[in-house]
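User: Sequence for Ribulose-phosphate 3-epimerase below. Tokens please.
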Amino acid sequence: MIEIVPAILPKNFVDLREKLSLVRGLARLVQIDICDDKLNFENGLPFWEDFDFEIDLMIEEPESKLDYFINAGARRIIFHLEITKSLDPSIKKLSGIADIGIALDWVTPVNAVEPFLEKIDTVQVMGIKRIGFQGEPFEESVVDKVAILHDKYPNLAISVDGGVNLKNAPRLIQAGAARLIVGSAIFESDNLQTMIEKFKALQ
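Assistant: Structure tokens for Ribulose-phosphate 3-epimerase:
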């Protein structure tokens, strides 16, 4: 079954709370993209009782923020292989505490995940060139990358994040994506519930 995960790139805590309120009751799992290490969630994440949160850490030295986001209520933390200096200590720290994902830029070869396959829960393929921005155009070559990743590691849960919409989602699913991380297509739609239902109907 394909998992549809709304993605939020919050400007601040108020913005995060507002966007979460829009999908409250429509999705259980939500991804929060962290591009600014100055965002303050020390009092926890809003609506924590209604959501499971995965944190996509797109900041330098994300390993230094692990305690912060674990305490804030993260259930899964995703590291970008191109940014994280040393992944093994973070994986060890999170073992038994939170699920772990690795994100790959659209140009990073798929075999880069091999050293971590038995230690992680998902690989997230980035569908856009400029990381940390919503509304970016989808990079078409990512469909082939998902297919190669799925063929090489058929038991791996593959996520796609960035530029996902109703037009390219069927091709990503056919290529082997198990999870679609969707930002603009959901939050810029006139009816969020209908849009989420349309994505779920693609399964």
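The chain has a mean pLDDT of 91.
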